[in-house]
Amino acid sequence: MSMTTGEAEKQEEVAGIRARRRARVAWVFLSPALIVTAFVALYPLCDTLYLSLTNTRLGSEEPARFVGLSNYVELAHDGFFLDALLLTVLFAVITVMLELGLGLGIALLLDTRFKGRGAVRAAMLVPWAIPTAVSTQMWKWMYNDVYGVFNDVLVNRLGLVSEPIAFVADPRTSLLAAVLVDVWKTTPFVALLLLAGLQLIPRELYEAARVDGATPLQAFTRITLPLLRPALLVALVFRTLDALRVFDVFYVMFGSRPDMQTLATYAHEILVSISDVGYGSAVSTAIFLVIAVFIVIYVALFQRREA
Amino acid sequence: MNARALARRAALGIAVFCLVVYLVFPFGWALLSSFKTNAELFSTPARFWPEHPTLEHYRQVLANDDFLHAALNSVLVASSVTLVSLAIGALAAFALGRFRFRGRSLVLYVVLSMTLFPQIAVLGALFQLVNALGLYNRLPALTLTYLVFTLPFTIWVLTGFLEAVPVEIEEAAYMDGASPLELFTKIMLPLAAPGMVTTGLLSFIAAWNELLFALSFMQTPDKRTVTYAILSFSATTSSAFEVPWGQMMAASVLVTTPLVLLALVFQRRILAGLMAGAVKG
Questions:
Q1: Mind telling me how many Å the CA of A131 is from chain B's nearest CA?
Q2: Residue A53 and residue A51: Cα distance in Å, rounded?
Q3: Could you tell me the domains of chain B?
Q4: ipTM of the predicted structure?
Q5: How far is it, in rounded angstroms, from Cα A205 to Cα A187?
Q6: Does B15 touch chain A (CB under 8 A)?
Q7: Model's pTM, two decimal places?
């Protein structure tokens, strides 16, 4: 059936009106979320950026002044900040490597068939579900230099060391103590993510590789790793971003110990304990920048490999 | 069965055993410790099983008003933030999942980048906002600010759920003269119910586990949440010891058990939600 031009135009017009009406309806449904997001995230983000350029102090008599980049200049010379930056990056690199390695091992283990696999997968959620603040306390008790179970095993049962180790207090083991808690808590998540990726790999590929005489190691490096790459990348990005903003483990384990501050605990201390909102906002913004730098590095690395 | 297959099975068994011990030992040790008397806790060499199991630590924790306040506060904050983000998030997900309009991908992009957003980056400004609203040391401050991390996630996962609904269902509803609001409440909401359970659980757990904002915006002991309270556990009754580890472990078990049970009961849903959040990101 043919339409006259007038009818077609009219239909188009009706469709246009309908599309516009539907778009309006969509924005109405979106509006509560947009208002909340603007209020608790976008505005505070811009405000933090602005505050970092001022000398705002909470409860200060004199009005806040715009001070340009002087907070950032101060940051560059702030030994505590630079130490925190170094410690945070070190922590991120160590934990992410351990979590990806261990997570991959666990994922491969859970990808094999055995009785009780469902139960083991359920047990993976135990460390994840426990609040970090609480699990850090549990680990602190295990680390205890006199009554802790680790020292008990190392000194009394195995006799590996003669003197108990003060895992948390001793600067040589402090970072390790924090790393182990984080690895324990988040490796299950990495493993589950990688397991989901493994299960997407068609079994026929392994079958074909075996027929062609490939060793299990070859199958792993030529099939598993390349096909698992998307899942590995997601885990890598997620874990890195999370590790760079680490707060709970360090705050609970070390409190305000000067040599064990991360970027986030340092920002919190300056913002809340000292109420120096201007400088603290500069530290917050610096965390944001550090995370941005990591994202840029990752994007650059992966795009080059893809090309 | 040949020797090689047997060795393989044994190795697998040992690996699985080690994995399970690794996963549950810290919680298990806290559980065992919470039933030990102080004499047993503070003795060397350590004993594995409590020889004289006692509920004394639990009795002390449950007689501690600050702890009970904290538990109640955590329930209130976590439930309220979950409900608010489900309500707002479902509306937004309906718009993003079922409508095509200009700006949609921008909104989705903002939502996605917010799920990766470091809370600390907005702490300074939120601190000022909370003070300006007169919410300092009041629980609504937490309900409001926790939306920073629960809402984007809720929107993201629910949008995925609603996108998957076949378009025929929507067309049939419009043919029957349903308005968009009716389509949302009568058809989409029930279809999204499993997704709401998943995201609700994840929001609740995230809010229950939060420490930084609670630490920054709450002050007096009656306003603390459980993660904050567990830090400030001071020697109230067992002053002979520097840290009342027995009480601390009892309190840890009390605030953790509900979450562990939730996670185990709803493990399928939680796994699906975690993966939806991560894989799509």
A1: 4
A2: 5
A3: 3-55 (no CATH), 65-235 (1.10.3720.10)
A4: 0.90
A5: 28
A6: yes
A7: 0.90
